[in-house]
Design goal:
The protein has 555 residues and is α+β, with helices and mostly antiparallel strands. The protein is 44% helix and 14% strand. The protein is built from 20 helices and 17 strands. The strands form 4 sheets. Strands 5, 6, 8, 9, 10, 12, 15 and 17 form an 8-stranded antiparallel sheet that branches. A 5-stranded antiparallel sheet has the order 7-11-16-13-14, with no helix packed on it. α1 crosses α17, α10 runs antiparallel to α11 and α12 runs antiparallel to α13. The termini are far apart.
């Protein structure tokens, strides 16, 4: 159901409505929904979070939909979710959040005519019966009882999603949430988020101290002083994860793996309970992937410049990376092709999915992604690559060798949001698509064209039985909702010897051994090549059309 709601929001233009900074209304609605889901709220309340600002509020004036179209959303989201979203739009924040709602039965309601502010508002509003039906407020009884408490939870998630300083760093909002939650503590009708208990002894001064100590720590060059400030931040506000993860990184750098693992696991627990990032310069999924890597530091983990590394292991520094890129360009000039072997990339057939932040996003949104991809049924086409096969193999592209398929991406907003907010390969060397292997199909052994990339498969529909993929000498099965990551430059084959279809989402990622500098240079090289090829195509096409025209005669 969530996927259908998100598709409808995208179709109504939610991705074009500005919300805060560079974020869109769709970003905010999905983010609030994700927090509600991580807080383990009932499904109608999760879906209400997806709709909570679509009719506007007394704080956010723009409306995605007028209240006269409530029936359309009710049909998609259900009556309970839509009513909560509508009540959220018409219930003023002041009385709702003042703590008096425990005994208030008839809260005042906002008139939607107030949305027509400034130059868009008529000099004199006509009475409700004379206004167009779609602009008339719907007649619903006011919120009371458990509904009012649900509205408070909605507002808490709304605040948690937006809680950040202008640069994305931590801001003061946690104690505010604790205070809002206090009247709900003895109410069994709502699921109070678990982190609220951890804030019982935290005051505004403690929260401010945690923020200041954390900001100073991130900017502190001395490792010992940095560790002291991070420990202070972690103690002053015992629900935030990021200081713990920085402390895990510092422990790992000095070779203390046991301490690194303890801090990482503490950070992971805090992150999962809070349900959102505190330092929003990274997403929740990026922090979670980093926590998992730090807790299992088999290849090491990096935090550089306040940003989590996308790599599984340490990549070369800028100077070494540039030298390696130059050797690749020389090889390209000799071989006459952009792909092929990139020098000195350590390769292995299978990679640990937990080292890639995108994996956390895909797996946590797998149900919605499956709904989005399944709805693409009419768009699937036969896979055209010259790979030997027995049976039927169909695909639908989101990104195809540098080309974005806008219609497919627009139909899959949650899938696209993850792809476009992580370090996926969207250049001429990469593919991002849904792959459907029909029952009884076998894709014969083959190899990818380059070692520049690794390939991620998210299982969406996986039948029981003999349905698997071999990479190198090892065979693995897909699991619905889980990712496999492998290097497709190794020989691989896949089969579905069952009587049902197998569907996976395939996303190409830059090889984890490449540095940020190398990725930037490669993206520039691929982008230039693609643009030049398009210019040549237009030039040759124009010349061909001119040659087909008879020469002009001089009279």
């Amino acid at each position: 159901m969530a996927a259908a709601i998100i598709r409808r929001l995208a179709a109504e233009g939610a991705a074009q409505h500005a919300h805060r900074g560079e974020a869109t209304l769709l970003d905010h609605l999905i983010g609030t929904y994700e927090i509600m889901r991580r807080w383990h709220q009932p499904e109608p309340l999760q879906h209400a979070a997806l709709l909570h600002s679509v009719y506007g509020t007394d704080v956010y004036r723009p409306r995605l939909l007028p209240p006269g179209r409530r029936g359309e959303l009710r049909a998609i989201a259900g009556a309970d979710a839509e009513r909560l979203a509508y009540l959220f739009s018409v219930t003023p924040r002041g009385p709702l959040l003042a703590g008096t709602h425990r005994w208030a039965h008839d809260l005042p309601r906002r008139d939607h005519r107030d949305d027509l502010a400034g130059e868009d508002r008529p000099a004199e509003d006509p009475p409700a019966e004379d206004r167009p039906a779609e602009d008339r407020p719907a007649e619903d009884p006011p919120a009371e009882g458990a509904e009012v408490d649900a509205l408070v939870l909605l507002h808490m998630a709304n605040l948690a999603e937006q809680g950040r300083a202008p640069d994305g760093s931590p801001a003061r909002w946690l104690v505010r949430l604790r205070d809002l939650a206090e009247p709900l503590i003895r109410n069994d009708a709502v699921n109070l988020p678990a982190f609220i208990a951890g804030l019982a002894a935290v005051g505004e001064a403690d929260e401010a101290l945690a923020i200041d100590a954390y900001r100073q720590a991130v900017a502190e060059p001395d490792a010992a002083a940095r560790a002291d400030r991070l420990a202070l931040a972690a103690a002053a506000c015992p629900v935030v994860a990021e200081p713990c993860l920085w402390l895990a990184h510092l422990a790992l750098v000095r070779g203390d793996v046991a301490t690194a693992r303890d801090w990482a696991r503490q950070g992971q627990r805090r992150l999962l309970v809070l349900g959102t990032a505190w330092d929003k310069r990274l997403t929740f999924d990026e922090w979670l992937a980093l926590a998992q890597r730090l807790a299992n530091p088999d290849d090491g983990a990096l935090v550089a410049g306040g940003r989590a590394s996308e790599r599984v292991r340490t990549a070369p520094g800028p100077s070494a990376g540039r030298q390696r890129f130059h050797r690749y360009v020389e090889a390209v000039a000799t071989a006459g092709g952009l792909l092929g072997v990139y020098p000195e990339l350590e390769s292995r057939p299978w990679l640990d999915p937990s080292g890639f932040p995108l994996v956390s996003y895909l797996e946590s949104h797998a149900e919605v992604i499956r709904e989005e991809i399944t709805a693409l049924e009419p768009r699937f086409q036969r896979e055209s690559e010259r790979i030997r096969r027995a049976g039927d193999w169909d695909v639908v592209f989101l990104y195809e060798r540098g080309r974005r398929h806008d219609d497919v991406c627009d139909a899959c907003p949650v899938t696209t949001r993850g792809i476009e907010s992580h370090a996926t390969m969207r250049t001429a060397s990469g593919l991002i698509y849904a792959s459907r292997m029909r029952a009884g199909t076998h894709i014969h052994p083959h190899r990818g064209p380059t070692n520049l990339r690794v390939r991620c498969h998210l299982g969406l529909t996986v039948p029981d039985g003999d349905c698997a993929i071999r990479v190198g000498d090892e065979t693995r099965r897909w699991t619905a909702g889980k990712c496999l990551v492998f290097d497709d430059f190794f020989e691989h084959e896949a089969w579905n010897h069952t009587d049902a279809d197998r569907i996976v989402l395939i996303v190409d990622l830059w090889h984890p051994g490449l540095s940020d500098e190398e990725v930037r240079l490669l993206e520039g090289l691929h982008g230039y090549t693609l643009r030049y090829a398009r210019q040549l195509h237009r030039y040759w096409s124009a010349n061909a059309r001119a040659a087909a025209q008879p020469p002009a005669r001089d009279d």
